[in-house]
Every structure is written in structure tokens, then in C-alpha cells.
Amino acid sequence: MTDLPDPTYPRHPVHPPGPTPDRLRPDGALFLAPDVVLTPDGPMDHYAAVVSGDTFLAVGPAEQLERTYPHLTPVRLRGHILMPGFVDAHHHLTQTFGAALAFGEPSEIFRRLWVPLEGALDEEAVYVAAKLAALESLRGGFTTVAEAGTRAPVDVELVAAAARDAGIRCVLGLVCNDADSDADASTVLARAEKHLVRYCTEELIHPSLAVSVPEAATARTLRDTARLAAAAGAVVQIHVNEHLAAVERSLVQHGLRPLEYLHAVGALGPQLLAAHATLLTPRELTLLADSGAAVSYNPVASAWKGNAVAPATTMAERGIRFGLGTDGTRGDAFRLAEAAEFAQRLAYGLATGDSSCGAGWTWLEHASGGGADAVGLGARTGRIAEGAAADFLLVDVSGPEMRLSWDLPWELVRRGNRDQITAVFVAGRLRLWRGWPLDWDGPALVRRAAELSRDVVSRAPVTRVHPTSTAARHAGAERSTAQ
Fold this sequence. Notes:
The protein is of the alpha/beta class. It is built from 17 helices and 17 strands.
């Protein structure tokens, strides 16, 4: 009989609820002693972490750290694991007011929904919408989001302020489209340079450039934004090969598929963060692998919008860098990781008899460290390690979903739930406790967002193909009665 691992997470019996938030907000360094620390090498039993300022001062065996830091009182976290915060590699923070409007809609909805919606946002609405999205992300376990650039006619500092005030790390995109705008390439590139400098020293805001789709920018701007971003250690976010309409437009306009076109104009390289990349030929996979470009794999968006599913297991095998993104669908990191594995299983694994589909660790890694690398922050966040940013979660695994544990990475992917998140830390600070912020009024923000969203959506010239689900149900009932 094959020996099975002992179900040992957590090692200790179930205990009453852990410490209060006050113990997690000390004046000095913080010594955290959970049952398990999820390190880059896997789950480590009886490990601890010391947080000083915004970084991990030390990570290692708890007994060893107690000897090294005798002046610190360990905060015992029975029934908890300490794991990296998740990274959302593709978000649209200012689209949150219309998230549910996209349900049941066909693919490529940006012209009918997102452009008019964002165009109807004023300054207050931009700030509130972005902060609401940041709150949802934090509640779902994301400590970093990559904002792909708003189309709202406002200064992007409003989006930065919302993320900063919410307490989430944000890779902030500035849209650099110039193919169909009044701005010429020189003006767009000058703004891009200023944006990269403006946020280059911030703690939570990291500058990025963005182009909606390759045909939205001239060849010069595609090439020069790539050059500017590479020099600044930033990324350029572009929606690439997302759906058939986009591929066909590129073929008609340039005689090349979108990713091939980026390569041809000199915009393909390690600085590129290609959002979606669902429709890839073998040649395009080779271009990604050879260039060092990164991808945001967005499995929930693929399902909700009817796109293809990016070949993420193939990307992993070929060493292509990628993270996981929500595309603003829902800010729930555990469900995103599960969707990433599930989509691969349905799209590729069943056809080939691949019962592993990357296993649990693949999806945890690309939802955290791999995602951080994809958005240009691999040296800063995404892992529990000495010197890394203290962006992490305390997750309660003492309940019925996780108590009987045989393979923690798999269980976090398939059975993890955002309701199990006790605390969210970003840059060493406790940002959320049991789903709500401690330093600002989360419920008040939600109430204000509900008020503003009604006004914004009523003014925006949004065009929906499908009725709401309730209206569709009534229409179906009427058809049945008529027959």
C-alpha cells in the first residue's frame, strides 16, 4: 500500500480565534508564528516570519528566529497559514460600476459598454469606482493589481489616489493610444515619459504604459513606449490576440496577427505584458518564449465573454512568463486560481488525458510570484522571503474545508475561499481584517458607489445585446405561454 502523507495542516488542534488586530499593528517589528508559511520552496511547517517596516526582515524556522530575535514576542497564529498576497495581472479599476452589465454579453464589448461607461465618469466617480474595485480586490486576497489604463477623461492621479488610499499595490497604466486621436506621437510619448517619472519613487504606485490594442497606436508609439518602459523597468500593457475580431482586424490592416505585428515593429520584449493572448499559433508561442514577453492569463474573462482559453499549461512548459488576471470580472483570488486550473482542464487536459493540468502549485505560483514577475514587480513582491515586500495573507485553515489536509497547494486552489482570509497585509501594514479596512470606512464607500453608479450608468450611452436575466426569463415565459 502506498504511504500517504500525514494530514498535518494545521499541526495543532483547532483553537479559538487568533489575536486581535491590535497585536498585528505593533510600533516596531512584527514576529508572526503561524502553523505553516507558504514559501517559494513550498509549505514550511513550524516556520515564522519577521516583518520590519514594509519588508520581510527574516523568514525561517520559528525556533531559530526566536533565538535570533529574543526581544520580539511571537504572535502565535494557530490554525493559520501565512502565504503571499495574490497578484491580479490585468484589471480595469474604473469599470467596476458596470461589471454586471457585461453578464451574458458577447465578446469584444469595449465599444458598446466600457468606452461609453468610462466616458461618463467624472472625477468623484473615477475615484470611488477605483477605490471600490481596490476594496473588492483586497477582500479577495489580492495585494497587487495591474490597472490597464482608464479611458475616463481625468488625470490618472485620481486612480492612483484611490489605490493608495485603499492600501493596495497598483501597477498604474497610462493609455498611450495615438492612431485615432488628436494627439500626435510626440505628445503621447512626452506624457508617457512624465508618467514614468511621476510615480517612480512611490511605495504603492508603480508606473506602467498601456495601449488598448496594437492598432490603437502608431508603429512609432508602439516601438517607443516599449523602449521607454524597458529603460524605466516598467511594463507596457496591451490587449493582444484576445478574440477573432481583433486577430482579423490586424490581418486586414497589417497582414500580420497582433503579436506578429508587435514583433515586426520592435515592441515585443520583456517589457510587454500581453493581456489575454487566447488565440496563439505555435509561431506566436515561440515569439513569446524567445522575446521574454509576459502574458496575463484571464480564465474567468474567457468564460464570461466567450473567448478562447489561453494555453497556459503550454506556456508553463515552455517557460513563458505569465500571471493570472481578473479583467475586472470579480475580485476573488482563490476562485481565479481555481478557474485557471479548471479552464486548462476543460480546454486542454480532457482532450489529452492530462489529469494533473499543472497541479496546484503551478496556479498558486502564477497567481503570486509569477504574476508579480509578469507585471514587472518580481524583484519586489509575490513571495514570502527575506527582503521581499511584506505583502501577504493570513488564512484560516482550521475549518472543515481545509482541516483535513493532504496536499496544501491543491487544496488552496480547489477549496480555498476568500472567507477564510483573516488578514491582508500590504507593504507591512494591516489593510483588512476579516474583510474590511481598519483605517477607513469601507461600508460608507460601498453606499456612495451604489449612489454614483446609478447616475453614471443612466447617463452612459451603453448598448447591450441581451436583456437582464430577469427580463429574459419573463420573455421566455411569455413565448412558452404563446405556444
